[in-house]
Amino acid sequence: MIHLIPYSNIQSKFGLIEKFDPRQDSWVVSDLQSKWELQKHVLSRFDVLPDLAVMRATDLWKRLADQFLPEYKILPPELAVTLLGDWIAEKELPWAKSALSVQMIIGQIHSWTSIFADLDHEPLMAEWLAEHKEAYVRWGHWFQLGSEIWQRCTAEKYTLANWIPALLANLDVSNFARPGRLYFDLGPQVSPVEMNLISKLAEHLEVHVLYPEVEWSQMMPRTLASYRAVLGDSKKTVSDWSPTQRPALKLGRFTTQLAETKHAVGVVRNWLEQGVLPSHIAVVAADIEEYWPALRLYFEQEGIPLAKNSVYRWSATLEYGHWLSSLKVALGRVSTPHLEVLFFADENSRKIDFDRFRVLFSKLYDAHDLSRAPDIQPVDQKMSLQEPIDLKRFVEWACAYWSRAWDIEKLEPFLERVLSEVPRGASLKPAMWLSYFEGVLARREQSLRSADKEGVQILSLASTNWLKATHAVMLNLSEGALRYQVR
């Protein structure tokens, strides 16, 4: 049975949270910040929190996949980009050669998963596209490519985490058991495919769906469209709704992101001078990571504490930077910056003085230009660039390029991650494995300085459900930045 529970703000959820029993119930949220906040509330009443008590939607979908799709391998994002990029490159499509094509097709497939999950979608969509010529011209070729990639993933039993609800749509999930209630608190980020799966779970479980009830839903009907199948038309909407003018709300326009950042820091500083506590102030953007590097520097200069960890990416460390440069050059991806890191990051690997290096290698076009200095030949001629190999063989080859000057233990966390998340039997060309390594190192972070719990809150918009602040600065409220983000 499915129970629909409206809420207008975070305070209206607290009554439900007080009744929530983590020993048998499960509360499913959309993002990590909401998970942490809810866990803190529940742990104030219970000493122990079971693993399934509070979880993100993607974690629940993965558990369902483990039970009902055990033959499928869930691809991590970096490997999915690399693998699908390799498949797209094989087709040599003139309109899909850009590096952004892979991310675009992954996003499109996510939008079309409910169609692709239907085994009879091909003739139906072919007929529809034949009748709608304009749609075929605009995105028909992307749909065809997405369908081919979906079929290949299905044949090889690969999936992404956000594709799982569509794969489960045609399966009997009645064997999934929970002793208590399932609360789904996904906000406007829930997709129609996810709502379909939630409805299937409600056929044999007690499911409570929390949905945002707002007066402006008729003004922007697509925002909460995913709930329409179970909710129908909301009764608390106002057709001619318009926002209330509030004196405390101030709007500004800025020519550059840096100007916007400086203004935000200035506003926060003024609030602090007026006596507002740092923990009562929030700086929010659709994707705060776009602003974080500049915000961190300016706030540090002002001496303002921040409730956000300072981190560094693995790829930014000297050891990993030198290793990646070595691998790129060894595979013929020669460039002046890569050679500079290769020759000068490690004192023991210096084979040329800098003045001579600058004369010989300030302009490079391909690996053949290394012949300008015959005594320097860093390119490995033994590795075939066109022969697909498995991960184990590539790791064995790549580890030989880890400098003896660096502690080998620093490489272990990375190797543990890639060896655990890459499906067995996966085979790629060396250049594609290297691209995957780059993706992993670019995304993985290490904590540099812990957040100040009493500092200014720095958040992305999707993580503000539990925000407790009296003052906020909202950055980059543009239509492009506020588009739906795929979880």
Topology diagram in text:
Blueprint: E1 2-7, H1 14-19, E2 26-29, H2 32-43, E3 54-56, H3 57-68, E4 73-74, H4 77-91, H5 100-116, H6 121-131, H7 133-156, E5 158-159, H8 164-168, E6 182-185, H9 192-201, E7 207-212, H10 228-231, H11 257-273, E8 281-285, H12 292-302, E9 310-313, H13 318-330, H14 336-344, H15 354-361, E10 389-390, H16 391-399, H17 412-421, E11 427-428, H18 430-443, E12 445-449, E13 457-460, E14 471-475
Parallel strand pairs: 1-7, 2-3, 2-6, 4-5, 6-7, 8-13, 8-14
Antiparallel strand pairs: 9-12, 10-11
Find the count of extended strands (DSSP E, 2+ residues).
14
The Rg value, from CA coordinates, equals: 26 Å
| Mean of all residue-level pLDDT scores | 86
Please tell me what the overall shape is. Answer: globular
Percent range of helical residues: 40-55%
**Uncertain residue ranges:** none
Largest sheet: 5 strands, parallel
In DSSP terms (H or I, runs of 4 or more residues), the helix count works out at 18
Task: Name the structural class.
Answer: alpha/beta
Question: What's the quick description here?
Answer:
The chain has helices at residues 14-19, 32-43, 57-68, 77-91, 100-116, 121-131, 133-156, 164-168, 192-201, 228-231, 257-273, 292-302, 318-330, 336-344, 354-361, 391-399, 412-421, 430-443, and strands at 2-7, 26-29, 54-56, 73-74, 158-159, 182-185, 207-212, 281-285, 310-313, 389-390, 427-428, 445-449, 457-460, 471-475.
